[in-house]
Amino acid sequence: MKKPHDRRAGGATGRKAERHEGKARPQAAPQRVQARTPRPPEPEAGPRLSAAEKGEEARAARPPLRYPEGPLPALSMPVILTVEPTEEYALIDSGNGEKLERYGSLTLRRPENQAIWRPRLASRAWDGADAAFTGDTDEEGMGRWRFAAGDLTETWPMTQDGLPYWGRFTSFRHVGVFPEQAAHWRFVTDVIGRAGRPVRLLNLFGYTGVASLLAARAGAEVTHVDASRKAIGWARENQTQAGLDDRPIRWICEDAVRYAEREARRGSTYDIILLDPPKFGRGPKGEVWQLFEDLPYLLSLMRTLMSANPLALVLTAYSIRASFYSLAALMADHCRGLGGRIESGELVIREAGEEPRLLSTSLYSRWVAAE
After folding, report:
1. Is 21 in a helix, a strand, or coil?
2. Contacts of 122 (CB under 8 A, 6+ apart)
3. For residue 288, what pLDDT is reported?
4. CA-CA distance, 252 to 232, in Å (whole number)?
5. What are φ and ψ of residue 176, in 5° steps?
6. Measured CA distances, 120 to 108, 153, 326 (Å)
7. What is the CA radius of gyration of the chain?
């Protein structure tokens, strides 16, 4: 804080001035004025960088990619991982760019770009949904929910493999969980259970924490990273809802690439790594993520973060114009010398009822250690 100007300097001392008989009254010493150094002009603000320019600037500052040497892991493709209907979740029907789902006892109607076929069920089954999303049909489009009964709350309880957590109606049509990921979650919890040793797991782009909580319940020490403070807060609520407050989970709000870079400098390692990156995203400090441009660098960091005896590296990619063969080739580049195998394919959900179809939701590639 700037101190107030001292008005006493060069002025009266507060005592009466002495009178001098027969002598001239002494004059006060002249006040010294300290010359001020002129403040340099403020630099002119340059043009604001676009997201693409920010991304290019960040990538230019990175070290060149280093690829490991050694033989490629065995490749297994295509491997289709299918989620079947259960009491906790079921895909009731799909078609005409929409899907009708059941989460517990609630039925939801949402946009689905992959559903280019016609629905199997009559319109009354769709019109009777408890909640329907209206608005932009893009993956990250804004909109609102319309409720049939009008008395549904924003947050509602759900379960995944017996794990309680909170669902939420968001303006981006999502509800806090991607049910097709259940295939990966069960794979990871099985790996943790068979490991016979302590397991450290890193979950990047962790969203609302269901994967992290299932892994922690299975016995892993979990580090969960997401760039959204809102998502981290939601994940903490899910931890309490699941009764897992005593489990070793670190909730970190940070850009995934920045966190991975710092962990690599620290020499940290993990036995299992989950990657569920978006096509495009922003970090809490304005960092820009673009999948095709940034994924190779992130995977090179993941190889650095893998422990001496790693168990799995799982990558899922949504809403991209690519092939699982592309993901497999990229994964193989960064997993040379590890042995094991790489599985790559699609995550799909099987409809409930007669003549069910398979709804493709995302591409994936995962490296699995040899047993």
Report:
1. coil
2. none
3. 86
4. 7
5. 100, 0
6. 16, 30, 33
7. 30
- Cβ-based burial of 274 (10 A; exposed 0-12, middle 13-18, buried ≥19): buried
CA distance 189 to 170: 28
Strands 272-275 and 200-204: parallel
- Indicate if the pLDDT at residue 152 is higher than 50: yes
Q: Is the dihedral of CA 245, 247, 248, 251 positive or negative?
A: negative
pTM, entire model:
0.82
What pLDDT digit, counting tens, does each position of 180-193 carry?
999 999 999 999 99
Say which DSSP state 271 is in.
S
DSSP state of 288: E
pLDDT above 70 for 28: no
Cα separation, 261 vs 283, whole angstroms: 14
Amino acid present at 368: V
Closest by alpha carbon to 301, among 288, 316, 313, 317?
Answer: 313
